[in-house]
Structures are given as structure tokens and as C-alpha cells.
Give the backbone structure.
Amino acid sequence: MCGRFSQSASLERYARLLGARRKGFEQRPRFNAAPTQSLAVCRLDASGERELVAMRWGLIPHWWRRDRLPCHTINARAETVAEKPMFRDAFRYRHCLVPADGFYEWQARPGGKQPHFIRRADGEPMLFAGLWERWWGPEGRVESFTIVVTEAN
């Protein structure tokens, strides 16, 4: 499961890597991106062109009730994503790519957990498969995403 990752490269670098246009937002480098933060995500716009946009990490399905606090579904298991109501519509219609410089995994040790940063050997960014949704809450429109995960190889 991916609970923290890094987006420390420039938005221009991610946009070039993805062949996407950047859609009006700024982001400082995130070396320890956390759930609920606004992060860079690549999706297709209405005309089918790639765009790099900011979205909240933690999927809120479009049907989520407005009178309930938003859920924080940061990961979706690849094995069940097509059937789970939480992800089913996004899986059918709203895919995205999440650029990252690496992610963190923790190892249990006496006295606490030890974080390990996992990245590509060549230092280039990696891409996570993701799903996104648009939800209308009390404060207006919220676009959110989740990362699709599977067993380690």
C-alpha cells in the first residue's frame, strides 16, 4: 500500500514526461506527500488531451453524501477495483496517472518503524496508475484521486 510518496521534481518536468499541458496551479516540492494534500495528477480533458492538474489525495466518490465527512480512500486494490462500489464508476470512466519520484515503505524495528525510500535506479520519475472523481461538497467542487495498488513484485 502506498501511504506516502514524493513529488519533488518540477511541474514542468512532470508535464514534459507525460506530454501534458499544465493547468494553472503551483506546487512546491513535496518530499513526503500525505493523504488529503493537493498533488499533481495527469488526466485526459474533455477533448482527449493530457492535462496536469491538482487533485486531493483520497478519493471521494461522486455519489458521497454532502452531509457526511469525506472519506479518505487513498489506495484501491487492483484485484477488486472493478467491483467495489467506491471505485467502480471511476474505474470505468476516470483514469489518471500520478507522477512520483519515489514512495515510502516502512519496516518494523524494535523501538519503531524504519522508513525506506523506494525509487527508480536511474532517478527518473515513476508513474502510479490512479482513478479520479469529482464531488460536490458544502464548499463546492472537489476533485480527488486514489492510487491503484497490487502485491509487491
